[in-house]
Specification:
Oligomer: heterodimer
Strand content of chain A: 15-25%
Strand content of chain B: under 5%
Structural class of chain B: mainly alpha
Shape of chain A: flat
Distance between the termini of chain B: 49 Å
Protein name (chain A): Dolichyl-diphosphooligosaccharide--protein glycosyltransferase subunit 2
Largest sheet of chain A: 5 strands, mixed
Largest sheet of chain B: none
Radius of gyration of chain B: 18 Å
Subcellular location (chain A): Endoplasmic reticulum membrane
Main location (chain A): endoplasmic reticulum
Helix content of chain B: over 70%
Shape of chain B: flat
InterPro entries (chain A): Ribophorin_II_2nd, Ribophorin_II_3rd, Ribophorin_II_C, Ribophorin_II_N, Swp1
Structural class of chain A: alpha+beta
Distance between the termini of chain A: 151 Å
Pathway (chain A): Protein modification; protein glycosylation
Number of helices of chain B: 4
Helix content of chain A: 40-55%
Number of strands of chain A: 23
């Protein structure tokens, strides 16, 4: 009782993700092929040999490979020694000769001044060649490198290196890096979790994190959802750009299928998740990420409910294992046709992750048509209907007539072939096809409350659908549904329809929208109506004529220029003034305001100075004249 | 009624001819000329239409502005108004007249298009 409650709460509480991407058997085969390329150099030997060993495959010609390794080995390069050591360890009976210089070279590489990659390679080579190394020195060198090279790949290599060290060393600080790295992963849509450096970095992270966690026997700080998201990221790529990428994916797959803490479970249906009377078994592949069946697991249907009626069909039903496939005879529970929601649990190992899966299973059936009765019913019900029964798939012998005083009627039932239960499929159509004109009209047959389908054809009502074209129509019954294995198209009978007013068959006017449209003529802005030139010329002369009048008036008044002194300021003033007037004209024709102001400033100031002088002289003269006249008047008065 | 108007007008004209100084009469002739020019422009606009409107406006404003400035000049150089324009000599009035005209014509030419 209490245990059941605990299980129930666990099931309800964990809304865990399930993997959306995983390697299928063909993907695994492709991965193997990618790693089985012929060798070009030591690096490719390393990736191929070690990668394939992770997939559980060992190279056939071990001796050839060993010879290749020995001949390509460069004992003065740490990297070369690394590849050779790792690859030779996998191959049986392949020993690399180790000299003192080699050992010294590798030990010297373990220092704070080497890169994380160099430390990783030298430590791995020392470990694989069985040479002693000082774990604590390595740990301090790694810690120094991590703080200097803060990038993701360096830290991953540090994790990898730490998993080769003695268990007595203080690996706690390096272990904490797993959590820090996990925080640097990018969450894409809640489905993927990967480094921005790509799939290879993510895969290497996974393999090194589990390697180190297994080595120190401490559970990695990765939540189940994170593990599934990592699975999605790493296995979403089904073809690999480089040998190193394929190697990283193989390492990650091996780590995820075989570590002490978390093993993601992949549950997928074999073929479509559908059962029927001919195929009563629901078959599931329950595998790890490398597509290997989890034969030790117990697979159970926790509940199976119908989607439409929400009634439970199964509860705690076990699957049985047969040839690596888990199967369940679902048809044995006699489900009605339709869709069912399965909740499947995979138990048996505490390491399983994502072991609760939701699955939608379809139950299909075959449909049979029962009691197909065709009749002609009089509209005024005076004569009883003549019913003829037709059996599927034959056609009614006589054709039926429907016109203004009789309707055509059809009733039938659709039942499940095996159980006899009435069905209401999604598509039940009655199609009438005019063989001469090619016209077809489709009606829907509706079931009544007793699930009996009825169809009635009244020529008065359906005049418009048929365009009032009388003639012989072939009548078809169409039955279809997603859960039917045998959709039906049945030529039931021929019906002769007579309509009252016959309209000429209207040829369907295809509205041609692709003919060119009428061209739009651009209407330029019409210039304003101008008066005729004669008129404007006349008025120009008229407007200028008062000037003549002015000159005449001035002459009559006796205005003269007798007081015109030829002093330089006077001349300059008049020239300047004329220049200003000229500038006005030039402004009208050529210049803009800024240029005009510029010239005006120059000419204007000259004119002003000259004019000032001239007017001052005039003023002096005037005042002198006034004074002298005043003096004369004063004298004459005395 | 009309008799008195005619007599007033004839009296005014006689007084004008006799008592106004010559230089004021010169300015008055100029004023009359400006007025005629403006009136003729307006007549054209009424008869033919306002196209182009900006040219009509600038020409008309030029006439109006010139008229106003000439009136100012006339007031200022009239010796009978000397008391009110103690600081402004006739020469100064003329210089102001010329300067104001320069500004007016700058604007008019800008607008005439």
């Amino acid at each position: 009782g209490y245990f059941g409650l605990l299980i129930l709460s666990l099931v309800l509480g964990t809304q865990t993700l399930t993997p959306t991407h995983h390697l299928t058997a063909s993907d695994v085969a492709r991965l193997q092929a990618a790693l089985s390329q012929p060798f070009t150099d030591l690096e490719s030997v390393y990736y191929s040999v070690v990668g394939l060993s992770k997939l559980g495959i060992f190279v056939a010609d071990a001796d050839e490979t060993c010879k290749f390794i020995k001949s390509n080995l460069d004992a003065s390069s740490v990297e070369s020694l690394f590849y050779a050591a790792e690859a030779s360890q996998v191959l049986s009976g392949c020993e690399i000769p180790v000299l003192n210089e080699t050992r010294d070279l590798l030990l010297a590489a373990v220092s704070e001044d080497s890169t994380a990659s160099q430390i990783h390679q030298s430590v791995s080579a020392l470990s694989s060649l069985g040479l002693p190394l000082a774990s604590q020195e390595v740990v301090s060198a790694l810690k120094a490198r991590i703080s200097k090279e803060d990038n993701v790949l360096a830290i991953i290599l540090a994790l990898q290196t730490a998993s080769r060290l003695s268990q007595q060393a203080e690996l706690g600080d390096i272990l904490e890096e797993i959590e820090d790295l996990a925080a640097r992963l990018d969450d894409l849509g809640g489905v993927y979790l990967q480094f921005e450096e790509g799939v290879e970095a993510t895969a290497l992270f996974v393999s090194s994190a589990y390697a180190l966690s297994d080595h120190v026997d401490m559970e990695p700080p990765l939540k189940e959802d994170q593990v599934i998201q990592l699975v999605n990221s790493i296995f979403s790529k089904k073809s690999w750009d480089s040998l190193s990428e394929a190697f990283s994916v193989a390492s990650a797959a091996a780590a995820l299928s075989n570590n002490r803490f978390q093993v993601p479970v992949i549950v997928s249906a074999r073929g479509p998740a559908a059962v029927s009377h001919s195929q009563p078994l629901l078959q599931l592949h329950v595998t790890d990420v490398l597509c290997q069946p989890l034969t030790s697991a117990t697979v159970l249907v926790e509940s199976a409910t119908a989607v439409s009626s929400k009634s439970a069909i199964l509860s705690q039903a076990p699957f049985s294992l047969k040839d690596g496939v888990f199967e369940l005879n679902f048809m044995g529970s006699k489900p009605a046709s339709g869709y069912y929601q399965f909740s499947v649990a995979v138990t048996g190992d505490s390491r399983f992750v994502a072991n609760h899966v939701e699955l939608k299973v379809k139950v299909s059936t075959r449909v049979a048509i029962n009691n197909m009765d065709l009749s002609v019913v009089d509209k005024d019900q005076s004569i009883g209907p003549k019913t003829s029964r037709v059996e599927y798939p034959s056609k009614a012998k006589a054709s039926f007539m429907a016109d203004s005083h009789q309707n055509f009627a059809m009733t039938f039932q659709l039942i499940d072939e095996t159980t006899g239960v009435e069905l209401t499929p999604h598509q039940t159509f009655v199609r009438l096809h005019n063989q001469k004109t090619g016209q077809e009209v489709v009606f829907v047959a509706e079931p009544d409350s007793k699930n009996v389908y009825k169809f009635e054809l009244d020529t008065a009502v359906t005049k418009t659908e048929f365009d009032s074209i009388s003639g012989t129509y072939a009548l078809y019954l169409m039955v279809g549904d997603a859960t039917l294995e045998n959709p039906i198209l049945w030529h039931v009978a021929d019906v002769v329809l007579k309509f009252l007013e016959e309209e000429a068959p209207s040829t369907i006017q295809t509205k041609n929208v692709y003919t060119p449209k009428p061209e739009i003529q651009h209407l330029f802005r019409e210039p304003e109506k101008k008066p005729p030139t004669v008129v404007s010329n006349a008025f120009t002369a008229l407007v200028l004529s008062p000037f003549l009048l002015l000159l005449i008036l001035w002459f009559k008044l006796g205005a003269n220029i007798s007081n015109f002194t030829l002093s330089p300021s006077t001349i300059l003033f008049h020239i300047g003034h004329a220049a200003i007037l000229g500038l006005m004209y030039v402004y009208w024709t050529h210049l803009n305001m800024f240029q005009t102001l510029k010239y005006l400033a120059i000419i204007g100031s000259l004119t002003f100075l000259a004019g000032n002088r001239m007017l001052a002289q005039k003023a002096v003269k005037r005042i002198a004249a006034e004074q002298s006249s005043r003096l004369a008047k004063y004298r004459s008065l005395r | 009624m009309s008799n008195s108007v005619i007599s007033v007008i004839s009296r005014f004209l006689d007084e004008y001819v006799s008592s106004t100084q010559n230089k004021l009469k010169v300015v008055d002739a100029y004023l009359f000329y400006i007025m005629m020019t403006g009136a003729l422009q307006f007549l054209y606009c009424l008869l033919v239409g306002t196209f182009p409107f900006n040219s009509f406006l600038s020409g008309f404003i030029s006439c109006v502005g010139s008229f106003i400035l000439a009136v100012c000049l006339r007031i200022q150089i009239n010796p009978q108004n000397k008391g009110e324009f103690l600081s402004i000599s006739p020469e100064r009035a003329f210089a102001d007249f010329l300067f104001a005209h320069t500004v007016l014509h700058l604007v008019v030419i800008n607008f005439i298009g």
